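Moderator note: this is an archived Q&A kept for reference. The question asked for a predicted structure of one protein chain; the sequence and the answer are reproduced below.
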Amino acid sequence: MIVLHARPSPGFREAVDAIFGPGVVVHVDEAAALDGVAGDITVLLHVLTPVTAEFIAAAPKLKLIQKLGVGVNTIALDAARDHGVAVCNMPGTNSQAVAEMALSLMMAVLRRTCFFDARTRAGEGWSADPSELDSVGEIAGRTVGLVGFGHSAQRLAPVLEALGARVVYTARSEKPVAYDYIPLDRLIAQSDIVSLHMPLTEETRGSIDPFAMKKGALLVNCARGELVDEARLVDALASGHLLGAGLDVFAQEPLPQDHPLLGLSNAVLAPHIAWLTPETLVRSLTVAEENCRRLAAGEALLHQVV
């Protein structure tokens, strides 16, 4: 049994049926456990709901956990290894969507799109205090620091450069590219915009301190919320230390309704959808279907992590 644990849009479900055929069971309640079907699952198509060690132990037929995306921090990797369950991801399939979302968040914060949209809809767009325009700006002339230089950052960098930004980056190792490589602490301190493109690991968790960033800088995070000290991010935004933030990910998801980020007008927020486009889904499901075929044929799997 192949199970997709997600709440798919109609288009997502059509893509599943078109690529896999009608044999995939869609478990639409992302908050619910898979206990009722665990014993029959052979392949789990995983999006965001954590795959726990307890679930893996309760799924004796499980052979493959296929992440529809890149990050595998929501999967109990040690438990999968112990139970002989393969774990695969799909680097590169969502890079275009993530790069475009990061760029859109930069622009939305710099041009205060949400603030002026709300005022215009309320009939107050032309009556805003003129000083509100003092906090808008352009990408051109700014230094943009990319933290991590994988597929999405590599797509984003030339676009930023074409818009007139100076692009710098940091990564585990220097790359053969035309952009300046600098250590993380210097990148954070010197960049006008910091955009996160790295995985969440024990080493990277909480590694971004907003108060270590340049005053008046902007943070964009389409990677993982726990990379950032979120309490200090709230303080940095509320105090004006940071100009703003564009956030697609959070330490707790869904974001609680009383979270202080929701009350900050200099934060542009999205519900972890940077990767989620119809184009990404088709690319992802195509890789997943191929891995299911390879699993059945006893062939080497694509992008195997465990």
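Archived answer notes: The chain has two domains: 2-91+277-297, 95-269.
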